[in-house]
Amino acid sequence: MLRILNGALAALLLAVALAPAHAADEDGHELWLRYRPLAQAEQTKLQQHARTIVYAGQATPTVTAAIDELRRGVKGMTGKEPASAAQPADGALVLAEADKLPQGFNAEGVAQLGKEGYLLRRATLNGKRVTVIAANDDIGLLYGSYAWLRAIGSGQAPDRIDERSAPKLQLRVLNHWDNLDRTVERGYAGQSIWNWWELPDIRERRYVDYARANASLGINGTVLNNVNSKPEILTAPWIAKVAALADVLRPYGIKVYLSARFSTPLELKQTKTADPLAPEVAAWWKAKADEIYRTIPDFGGFLVKANSEGQPGPQDYHRTHVDGANMLAAAVAPHNGIVMWRAFVYAAEKPDDRAKQAYDEFKPLDGKFAPNVLVQVKNGAIDFQPREPFHPLFGAMPHTPLMMEFQITKEYLGFATHLVYLGPLFEEVLRADTHRRGAGPTVAETLAGIAGVANIGNDRTWTGSHFDQANWYAFGRLAWNPQASARDIAADWAAMTFSPDPAVVQPIVGMMMGSREAAVNYMTPLGLHHLMARGHHYGPGPWVDGGPRADWTSVYYHRADRNGIGFDRTASGSNAVAQYAPDVAATYADPAKVPEPLLLWFHHVPWDHRMASGRTLWDELVSRYSLGVRQVQAMQATWATLAPPPANADAAASATERAHVTEPVPVARGSAPLAGSIDPQRHAQIAAYLQIQLREAQWWRDASVAYFQSISGRPLPPGEPAPPHPLAYYEALRFPSAPGDGR
After folding, report:
1. Whole-prediction pTM value?
2. Which comes out higher in pLDDT, residue 654 or 343?
3. Which side of the chain, N or C, has fewer Cβ within a 10 Å radius?
């Protein structure tokens, strides 16, 4: 019922389908690398600044990739491909490593950019006006080429581009939760992009486009398989498949990594144990690492999920995370490999507060891990919730390299069908002060690397929806520069994905920047968390109780009763606040000081507690749920203003008539569509998803209000409509085939 498009929406899609083809129709497959023609004046100017491409010396595969991308981009935006030239002339694009920079070029600061940094600068060489892309290595030239194309594509004038940039974090990776049968755990964009069955013989063009997209963001690593790993991935046939992917990705600066199951040698029956301190186990892993590196010399290393959610690990043998991680680190160290050891753990027995366990297990181990071990920590202590306070391990392990783990796939945020831009979430966490407000260090300043759980599949959009591409994009840009602005990143993405016209960019950015807060409001307002249905995590389930573990239920987290709601994590409760630095803990522990968006995360609060708005907590909670619904309605209205006119108005009207449309798609009152702003195909698809999101936001609101009212016994605030169904109706809904269920 909840997943079926209503008649009006189906009619809209049918009308577009029956209308004559529109020349501008797109399916989103080109991502932000569309390179569409600029306005004539801008085309002329760009041609004057990109007549030729000059590179001195023998081009490596990476430099060749950079030159090919520049040609593709300039041709797409101007209709004319720049030629290669041996010497700079007026309007040349000059690519040069530091040791080959042309005479007369001011190279000050290039040496400080490191291997991956780049410099973009206008210069006069021998009387010729050129644009120089300078770097210390070929990968810097590739990143610089993408940066120059990004600047043009987002509306910058080519004669005003002056940029120098280097990554703040050296390790910037995607974690694919892809299984060997091509299913994807918590994936909402179709099957895995890795066609394991056909590898290593068939290397799809899609792999190159994947590499191009990641290189355009500076992502330099990819973990190919699920953290819930299978031992077969480390056998010879699969290593050959991985090597084929490594060959495709290598010119784009991307190393491959593998998730390794800790008990692999035991499960393959090649050892009698998986005890990390057993000599035979260490010897097996060393031999396996040697085998992998003989096939893939630049293999990155291993990602490991151990002793979590039933996965095997060193604790099975009464060993520590240090014992397990350091054993693997010793195996890859001779090859300059690393081990990314996940801190997402929780005990088999019932804890007093699951939010505390990772800190309790890892904090005492600070400084004991091998130098090539990075502890990978989720952004919050529970599990990728719509909003969490930053994980207390950030700032608490100064002698251990830490990695951030964000989720790009929206497991708890409506899947791909909800428009939720994650840039503000990433920014909120990265900028959080770990010790004292304004004094830092920020979470970003404690990091040695960053990982994102990928939302990529074999869907034509790559990510399951057009707007979910923005989350991949935002992750990459913030991985390169964690201090970047989520709003600025959204503007760049919108310009390159849809149009650089401010009349298009500004409303889209407005939608994006408010979308995460809207989702928080209609799902988990005021610090509530883990309220989703069991198993598939689709839809509301604040009533979820029972089962094998208390901390797999919703009631464990919201703890609503007749008197109030929220998880007491102060000294009178679980005392999880004590895991934060004293100043941060003091803020979180005081209900008068804790930010209201985190109130119920840290406090069990009476229903009649007065909020900043002057309303009681109960009234505020209900109003936040309703606000989330209205915010989605506002996004719908904004999107409707960007609708293009039909390619053939008569044909579309006829199709509408045949489809018996009775309700129009909402349009903001007093506004008129911007002719030709968004192509019909993408506009209709996004409108359809927004309709789904509105219906499901209303579902979240109604089901949650019905449940919490049954607990609080309070009347609804004036003007708030009652849920249209009794609580039993919402509790009875079942979705056994929801995407991601059971995988």
Report:
1. 0.94
2. 343
3. N
